[in-house]
Amino acid sequence: MARCLHRSTLLLLLLAASAISRATDWELSLDTRLVASDAYPSFMDGGLGTVRFGSDDSGIKLGRARLAVTQPLGQLFSAHLDASVFDDKDRSALGVTEAYLLFRPYPRAGYRFRLKAGGFYPPVSLENRSSGWESPYTLSYSAINSWLAVEVRTLGVEGTLDWLGSRTGHAFDLGITGGVFGWNDRAGVMIATSGFVLTDRQTPLFGRLGQPGVPPLNGAEPFMEIDHRAGAYLGVEARYFDRAVLRVLRYDNRGDPSAPDTVSHVLTWETRFTSAGLRIEAEHGWTAIVQWLGGDTTIAPPSLTLNWPFQSTFGLLSKRFGRSTLSARYDRFAVQTNAPGVYGAQDGHAWTAAYMFEANAHWRFALEWVRVTSSSENREEQGGPPLANETQWQLAIRYALGSSIR
Amino acid sequence: MRPACPATLLVRVQTPDGHALPGAVVTIRPLEGAARHAAPVHALMDQVNRSFAPDVLVIPVGSTVEFPNSDSVSHQIYSFSPAKRFQLPLYRGKPYPPTHFDQPGVVTLGCNIHDEMLAYLLVTDASWYGRTNEAGSWSAEVPHGRYRVELWHPRLRDNEAELGRELTVGDADRAELTLRLSRPLQPAPLTDRPHSWDY
Fold first, then answer.
1. Same-domain status, B167 and B105
2. Model-level pTM?
3. Nearest residue on chain A to B119, judged by CA atoms?
4. What is the tally of structural domains in chain A?
């Protein structure tokens, strides 16, 4: 742990020093955790625990060491890089969670257009709104957004057109987003072989899941292009002033489930989902979020088609009191299988409660409790109990530095 | 023969439930005699903590406005309002010449980098103008005569023309007018949300 921390801090500092020029906006942060957990080992350790830290991880752990750089390129373009170290369980400790180029022309005649190219999150989450795609409400993301963090990313282009009604005398803004991407042909492997989890570990672009040779994930790489078919998504967004956001998105990686990789022979997972979410903010620091996601993932090895439908929903309620934020979330999640004898069914729910205190722009303290109750065929197959309760406590201290952190 | 000394015209603005409405813009135009335009001014619209300050600025036609950017981050100020379309990049420590506003109307300001930033410039050809104080009132010294008093607020749901009133400031040295909205204002922007959050 100490060695990993040392190495990662040094790497980030080196990166920071080389990348920073006068016009660059940058952020550097270190988030450490004191963990107490009775959970099964996490998916990164080859286990089927449903939270980030298993009972073996109790003690002091690295939460995240992060460097983010935004470099304006002329007036209308900017380059964004978000690099992090979460642990030393991937090929390299340091990984890039997002890296993209943004084209941002000035809005005209009530319309605003944006174009993104690179690797980034599709616009699904209403919870992960802080820098670094973190949640300002809880340390652990909801099951839905944890899944996105683990194995969904756009590696491609995304265009967004917004009608800025609230700036032309109306109460609403409306937006439409479309994305075309590749290198996400293995999204779904986590859902089917491990299930939903509640984590804040974001798989770096071209990173891996679990450890090679250790079932069930065997070091699977979610960011692979196997069938040479582009995936796509289309989403709409409506806003009522700055009080409410409604987002609906349909995602389809358009994978060919019978196409194996020529080198590794792993199959394409055809993954499709629809997500819908509503976030309402009111006076006195109140925020409420509800989000739903439902879809399925399919593989078709010769003479067989295996399909796992999955759904998850959460409701979050949060209140800010000055520098403090108190939040509670309830998650439900389920995975089904379509054929007898095929493992992967999971059913569970989770309660999360978190208190965050922003002492100033540099220091943040957080205390979080997560309790997950789940049944899992995969866990039973590994010799675990059909029904399990897992509890994880985290005390987090984060220090941040940056060009706009004063 | 009217006395030459002016009278105080006090305008009170109230919400539909009778509470004082601070920050409402009041304009006064004479209905008789030659039109008198308020003199142009040089005003400031600053950028502080990723917000515009003030949130509403009233200026006479022909005025100039400076956007100094007191933030450590860059901004890209824009307006696509018909009264003034402009784009103004504000980089750290790089001053820009003031912008000239020569058409009356509402100019909605935004930032192309920070989507949540919002402010309004009201460019007016009225003779007298101002914003109501915390008690919801504002007053001007006007000569005796007949006037039209109008009200504007960025979150108004009422029809502006229907809220306006005409009145005669007679021989007394003081006249009062209360304007009450018939519909509640639209919700105010949330101000306590951390700026680092996505809008």
1. no
2. 0.92
3. A167
4. 1
Q: Residue B1 — pLDDT band, cuts 50, 70, 90?
A: very low
B54, two tokens? 């003030």
Q: Tokens representing A138?
A: 């809880």
Does residue B187 fall inside a structural domain? no
Of B44, B71, B93, which Cα lies nearest the Cα of B195? B71
Q: CB–CB of A166/A114 below 8 Å?
A: no
- Tens of pLDDT along A45-77? 999 999 999 999 999 999 999 999 999 999 899
Question: Which residues form the domain of A24?
Answer: 2-402
- What kind and span of H or E run contains A219? none
CATH of the domain at A14: 2.40.160.10
Its domain, for residue B87, covers: 42-124
**Count of CB contacts below 8 A, A vs B?**
58
Q: Does B71 share its domain with B96?
A: yes
Q: Cα distance from B111 to chain A (closest Cα, Å)?
A: 9
The residue assigned the tokens 């996400």 is A184
Q: What percent of chain B has pLDDT over 90?
A: 74
Q: Is residue B48 part of a domain?
A: yes
Q: ∠ CA(A42), CA(A397), CA(A37), 5° rounding?
A: 30
| B73 → chain A, closest CA residue | A404
Are residues B85 and B157 both part of a single domain?
A: no
Contact B198 A107 (CB under 8 A): no
Instruction: Flag if B187 and A241 touch (Cβ within 8 Å).
Output: yes
ipTM of the complex: 0.90
Count CB-CB contacts under 10 A for residue B146.
Answer: 13
pLDDT of B53: 95
Q: Which of B101, B140, A294 is nearest to B149 (CA)?
A: B140
Nearest CA in chain A to B186: A171
Interface-testing mutation among A22, A29, A106, with chain B (most B C-beta atoms within 10 A): A106
* In a domain? residue B2: no
**Are A242 and B87 an interchain contact pair (Cβ–Cβ within 8 Å)?**
no
Task: Identify any residues that bridge with A276 across adjacent strands, giving them in sequence order.
Answer: A248, A292
pLDDT beneath 70, residues of chain A: 1-22
In a domain, B196, yes or no: no
Contact by Cβ (8 Å): A308, A257 = no
B116 interfaces chain A, CB cutoff of 8 Å = yes
